[in-house]
Every structure is written in C-alpha cells, then in structure tokens.
Amino acid sequence: MKNFKKILVALSGGVDSAAAAAILKKQGFDVVSVHFLLCGNTWKLSFQVRKIARKLEIPLEIVDARKEFKKRVIDYFSAAHKNGLTPNPCVVCNKEMKFRLLFDLLKKYKADYVATGHYALIKVRPFPSPTFRRGIPQGRTLCEAKDKAKDQSYFLYRLNQKDLAKIIFPLGNYKKSDVKKITKEMKIPVPEKEESQDICFLLGENINSYLRKRTKLKPGNIVNEKGDIIGKHSGLSLYTLGQRKGIKIGGTEPYFVLAKNPQKNELVITNDPEKLLTKRFHVGRVNWIKPGIKFPLRAKVQIRYHAPKVSAIIRKMRNGKLEARCEKYLRAITPGQSAVFYKNGEVLGGGVIVKNYEV
User: Fold this and answer.
1) Domain 217-271 in CATH: superfamily?
2) What tens digit of pLDDT does each residue of 339-349 get?
3) Cβ distance 355 to 335 under 8 Å?
4) How many Å apart are CA 323 and CA 314, to the nearest integer?
5) What is the CATH number of domain 276-356?
6) Where do the domains of the chain lie?
7) Of 39, 93, 143, 326, which is the active-site residue?
8) What tens digit of pLDDT does each residue of 158-184 get?
9) Does position 138 have pLDDT exceeding 70, yes or no?
10) What is d(CA 306, CA 302) in angstroms, rounded to the nearest whole number?
11) Which of 39, 143, 200, 326 is catalytic?
12) The whole model's pTM is what?
C-alpha cells in the first residue's frame, strides 16, 4: 500500500470544498483538484477557485462542462416542468455530472479516490455472505452527516456500492461552524457571504421568472375537484402542489393547488387544505445503495430536502415500483421530487415520487 494516497477533489469555490481539500492535505494525502464550469459567471468563479488552489498549494484543472450540464441537468429540469412535475435537479447533478466527471478523471490523475465538500458519511461494513459483492471486499453505507442541519445525504441516494468505494466525504464528521473555522484559521480565500439555497443555474432568479423566459408556457383552465372551470392558469410549470399564492381566481376563500393534469392542461385546486394530506404514494426509478433489501420494508422516508423523516412501510408492487404507506399524514407529496429511505441514519436508497393518493 502506498504511504500517500492520491485524491482528486472537486473545488467549487466555496467554503465547504475548500475545507475538504485542506483537511485531506493536512491528513497527508496527495491532493489534486478540479473545478467544473457548469453555469453562471465562470470567469469570476474560476478566478476564486484558482486563489484557493494556490493557497493550498495543490494542482488545479478547470474543465468546461457547460454543454453537458445543460443537456443532463437544465434540459431535464425544463422537461420535467413541462410534464407537470416538480423536479429535483441537485439529485441528478450529483450522480450524472459531478461524480461522473470526477470518475472520468480518476484514471487520468492515477488517483485512488475522489472527494467533495458534501456533508455526508460513508461507513465501511462487511456484507454477510449472501449479499457479498464480487470485487468489493467490504460494503459501504451512506449515512447522515454529524451536522444534521447541513446533511446532504438526501441528494446522494443515486450512488451505488461501486461509487462509494471510491468516494471520500471529509466533512461528514464536522459541524459547519468547524468548517468555517478551518478556512479562517488557514486564511483560505473563500467568500464570507451567506450561502444560497437556490438552484445554482437560476443565478438568483425566481423559478417562475426563469421558466417564463426559457420555456414555452401554455395557458389552460383552473378547475375545482368536480371539474368545473373556475379560472385560467398561465402554464402548469408555474405551479406546484400545495401552493396557495399566485392562483389568482378571486373570491375570499384561500385556494391550494391539489393536482396538475398535463394531458388536459388543467390545474386542479381545492379550498380544503386537508385534501393535501396523504399517507400513501408510489415511487419509481428506484436505486438501492444497501443490497439485499427485503419487503415489506420498515424504514423512515423523507419526501423533500429538510423535510422531517416519517416512519413508513414500503412494499414492492407488481410493476416494479414501490408503494410507501406512512404512519403520519404528509402534506403535498409532490410527483417529481425524491423519496429517500433511511434506517438508523443510513441511506438505504430512494426513487422519484410518481403518484400520490387522497386517503
């Protein structure tokens, strides 16, 4: 075994990835870095990343991945909205862009691992004999980070055992306050401004404003639960389940988006907020990180980032999709979003919400 393993770190220009690279270098790893140009002010951001790499005294390569990012993430985002869904571009970006590009560069740099500034943990546990995977001496489990407020394991459920065997998350055992302290003490030139929780390619723009400029919106009817036409909408992409503001049909009662019907181009609304509460929903495009899952599965499910995890029983359906039955009612379970399954802090897997029920 080599004394110093080489690690390829993705530098974004922010505090987290800079701290991740600094921690790994301090631990004695041979660190090289890469920055992916995805969107936005690429000149300003690449200049920031270069300053970080110089301070850390690590090699840096800048890769222009804007065309690929548009194809795999932005086009997916637009197509999902067009089909009446509420997409989760960060989930797609992590698997289809960041880690795919990192793994592509792994051989070029003859690196042993890739690393990012994600707040998550990878633990190594041996698999029992029936689920032992050839070529993987030990099983990897993806777990929540120590800092629960910053935990990003929800966005990483599409990774697999082969991926986890080559990934390191240096920030998994750190609090965000510790990470900021590290960069400050080492005088790493990172921005001090508050972090944005917005989708990166929106560049601070409102989602509806972005969609109005870049997608073809088709106005249609707003209907109640009986199918009666009570107004007009500006395009289904501009609405999401549970939404109250912006429906604009007049009257004194508050109305909520109950469903979207892309086939009829109708927006279904209700004035009964309890109609948004459901216990059951279907999940498709499922990826399991933990092998050997048996059904029915008792686990906790999270239906959107930072949403509380709720106990549920998950069953496999004949069509290959999953049905989740939750112990508690959840509000506005939204097709297109991800449902991620957890057990004792471990990410078992997840998938895309495809249908919900009124129960």
Assistant:
1) Adenine nucleotide alpha hydrolases-like domains (2.30.30.280)
2) 999 999 999 99
3) yes
4) 6
5) 2.40.30.10
6) 6-201, 217-271, 276-356
7) 93
8) 999 999 999 999 999 999 999 999 999
9) no
10) 8
11) 200
12) 0.91
